[in-house]
Design a protein that fits this description.
about 35% strand, 9 strands, about 130 residues, 2 domains, Immunoglobulin-like, 5-stranded mixed sheet
Length: about 130
């Protein structure tokens, strides 16, 4: 126990909050740590996957301004375990209870449709 306290003290001196959290988790016997979601920045917009699909179903963003979508899947039983934008081949996996950040560096000029991998749930980003 004294050895563990010395290790934690060294970590505090290094000011590494992530390493400290890991050390405290292992010291308490808990290997799995829950990480709180990072707060949204000024150009970040939250989208949640719920039992109803993507919420909000229509998201208004400033026209032509770089934005980042922060998508969190809140339910396990859904086909929206991944998403893609209309006309774009790339798909993004949506792990349960984890934030996925998708930057749109060129912003949105009009309306952008996105959906789950099976196109059952769809939603729109609308430039205002």
């Amino acid at each position: 126990m004294k050895r563990r306290i010395r290790q934690i003290s060294r970590l505090v001196r290094r000011r590494s909050s992530h390493a400290l959290a890991l050390a405290l988790g292992f010291a308490s016997g808990s290997a799995a740590l829950s990480c709180a979601p990072r707060p949204l920045g000024p150009d970040e917009y939250a989208i949640h996957v719920t039992e109803q699909g993507f919420e909000p179903a229509e998201l208004a963003v400033p026209r032509g301004q770089a934005v980042t979508l922060v998508i969190t899947r809140d339910v396990e039983s859904t086909c929206a375990t991944e998403m893609h934008f209309a006309g774009v081949e790339q798909r993004w996996r949506l792990p349960l209870h984890q934030q996925v950040r998708i930057p749109l560096p060129d912003g949105v000029e009009d309306t952008l449709r996105y959906s789950c991998g099976m196109d059952m749930y769809e939603a729109w980003i609308v430039a205002k």
